[in-house]
Amino acid sequence: MSSTRSASEVEPHKIFDTILTLDFGSQYTHLITRRLRELNVYSEMLPCTQKLADLDWTPKGIILSGGPYSVYEDGAPHVDPAYFELGVPILGICYGLQEIAYRISKDNVIAGTAREYGHADLKAKKIDHGHVDRLFEGLENDMKVWMSHGDKLAALPAGFHTIATTQNSEYAAIAHESQHIYGLQFHPEVTHTENGIQLLKNFAVGICGASTNWTMAKFVDQEIARIRTLVGEKGQVLGAVSGGVDSTVAAKLMHEAIGDRFHAVLVNNGVMRLNECEQVRKTLTENLGINLIVADASEQFLDGLAGLDEPEAKRKFIGGKFIDVFEAEAKKIEDAAANSDKAGKIEFFLQGTLYPDVIESISFKGPSATIKTHHNVGGLPKRMTEGQGLKLIEPLRELFKDEVRQLGRELGISHELVMRHPFPGPGIAIRVLGEVTRERVEMARQADNIFISMIREAGLYDNIGQAFAAIDPSRAVGVMGDKRMYGNIVILRAVQTTDFMTAIAYPFENEFLSRVSTRIINEVHGVCRVVYDYTSKPPGTIELE
Ligand code: GLN
């Protein structure tokens, strides 16, 4: 798939002082990048196999991450030695520390007798006239740090000295005598390490001298300029929007950059939430001024879904139909564009790829694992790029989700929209478990609307990662108005999560859930039971299908 970045373009790492994080496969590597950005220092992650000679920019500092290998093992990854000649500060974390020690002498790293997972009390050493090393500035008191290692340094590498210790680790932190090379046995990037962020700040800002200018306000200006150059004076861009945070923010950014030469298409697939299509249309056009076309294909979708009950079959049908409808709309826009003298032909397709997708596709998975190329759900980008010959444009490619939200605020998008819970592409079709019928979609929609509005009224919406109501395929017996009823079961699900990789059920008060249950049973015709799903993820997933 073609990328949006070409050498001639102005990429963030060429504008902002950038700390390069080389990934040795730790599950925490992305957190290093995130923490630095929280400090307004721009950081990018690349796999540990990245050669310095292949970089066309110069980092302000380098961090070597942790990793599952042992440095002395056959096939363990090793960093390109050229980074050590670059003269910029280097910080090794866990595996990174071991790598620094190992390249000096292979005897420096051995398997420890006791593995060390969890907390340790760290003491920064007073070295220079009672002062701690610059890396520990402001961290003079004992601090709790988080360890996760089996190997350890057998000896201090030549040219280094110890700058902090724990009871078990004589070399918990080391520094080179004359060069800016540091190593930590613990993980400053995880929140279990107290004040870990201060330590990263001391490295990035204090030692590397990186400026703290990574703000969304600056990013907006830079990205708008980049889009304008890329698209040119007359070029046009096409994109799908759903009303979700990412597609809305990306669309607004395109609109700011090229106005009506950006065409957004919203496909009504018949399984959106109550009044959602109309609300999204209103917000995007009236509030945000985006050039939007709504393709109402709800009847086609609902007809095609009738009788489908297998989750994959539903997803496949919706994904395929979506592409057909989108393509037909795109064709109309392209034809109109071809006849206009104000603008050129449509050359680009907007895609709301985020940095975690990029990280996922480039993170180091070991020498035998081939690096996975990024693929997008639904196949639409592929169809538009390979099939229609459009080029991808991905303005959110460098951003984490919370940065996308900040960017949205910066662009004047409402708090409500910016904080909106994710909603799956196949929508309510996968929340009506089993067979999809118009009647059951309507039931799920009404129940969901009651649940979500009560969550909002209770002021809980922003504390919850995702919440929804689903309809169970079984039915249950109840008595309503003295009459036996054989009705439907509504399943409520709400989860608390930071990254959607793991989640726990939201701990509502019983009284709240009772009120929701009563309202749903009273107001949604055909429902006689309401249950709450307490499953965490794992083993559950967030959606039910
Ligand atoms: N695998 C190495 C060890 O066990 C490094 C671990 C890490 O980087 N967290 O010591």
UniProtKB/TrEMBL annotation:
<keyword id="KW-0332">GMP biosynthesis</keyword>
<dbReference type="InterPro" id="IPR004739">
    <property type="entry name" value="GMP_synth_GATase"/>
</dbReference>
<keyword id="KW-0436">Ligase</keyword>
<dbReference type="GO" id="GO:0005829">
    <property type="term" value="C:cytosol"/>
</dbReference>
<dbReference type="InterPro" id="IPR014729">
    <property type="entry name" value="Rossmann-like_a/b/a_fold"/>
</dbReference>
<keyword id="KW-0547">Nucleotide-binding</keyword>
<dbReference type="InterPro" id="IPR017926">
    <property type="entry name" value="GATASE"/>
</dbReference>
<dbReference type="InterPro" id="IPR025777">
    <property type="entry name" value="GMPS_ATP_PPase_dom"/>
</dbReference>
<protein>
    <recommendedName>
        <fullName>GMP synthase [glutamine-hydrolyzing]</fullName>
        <ecNumber>6.3.5.2</ecNumber>
    </recommendedName>
</protein>
<keyword id="KW-0315">Glutamine amidotransferase</keyword>
<feature type="domain" description="GMPS ATP-PPase">
    <location>
        <begin position="214"/>
        <end position="420"/>
    </location>
</feature>
<keyword id="KW-0067">ATP-binding</keyword>
<dbReference type="InterPro" id="IPR001674">
    <property type="entry name" value="GMP_synth_C"/>
</dbReference>
<dbReference type="GO" id="GO:0003921">
    <property type="term" value="F:GMP synthase activity"/>
</dbReference>
<comment type="function">
    <text>Catalyzes the conversion of xanthine monophosphate (XMP) to GMP in the presence of glutamine and ATP through an adenyl-XMP intermediate.</text>
</comment>
<keyword id="KW-0658">Purine biosynthesis</keyword>
<dbReference type="InterPro" id="IPR029062">
    <property type="entry name" value="Class_I_gatase-like"/>
</dbReference>
<dbReference type="Pfam" id="PF00117">
    <property type="entry name" value="GATase"/>
</dbReference>
<feature type="binding site">
    <location>
        <begin position="242"/>
        <end position="248"/>
    </location>
    <ligand>
        <name>ATP</name>
    </ligand>
</feature>
<dbReference type="GO" id="GO:0005524">
    <property type="term" value="F:ATP binding"/>
</dbReference>
<comment type="subunit">
    <text>Homodimer.</text>
</comment>
<dbReference type="InterPro" id="IPR022310">
    <property type="entry name" value="NAD/GMP_synthase"/>
</dbReference>
<dbReference type="Pfam" id="PF02540">
    <property type="entry name" value="NAD_synthase"/>
</dbReference>
<dbReference type="Pfam" id="PF00958">
    <property type="entry name" value="GMP_synt_C"/>
</dbReference>
<dbReference type="InterPro" id="IPR022955">
    <property type="entry name" value="GMP_synthase"/>
</dbReference>
<comment type="pathway">
    <text>Purine metabolism; GMP biosynthesis; GMP from XMP (L-Gln route): step 1/1.</text>
</comment>
